[in-house]
Amino acid sequence: MEKNDVRAGDKVYVIYRNPHAANVANIQQAEVVDHPTEPGQKALFIHDSYHLLDEEDAIFPSYSDAEEMYNKLFDYEQYE
Q1: Burial class of residue 66, CB neighbours in 10 A (0-12, 13-18, 19+)
Q2: Highest taxon of the source (predicted)?
Q3: What is the pTM of this model?
């Protein structure tokens, strides 16, 4: 899903990495909002904070789409 495909108010899903534990990630719902301090920019509102939406951010329209990518990225069975 591209940055230009979303509008303020959309609910999206992201693969969120815990900033305190690099090997911990999960799927979180976020809301697309107008960034409060960057006029004309979109942001993800997640965990009570704003993340300026970047072209490189992987956002998904549904939980199942995010889960499919999560399983591809974190398929630990391939390492066993």
Answers
A1: buried
A2: Bacteria
A3: 0.81
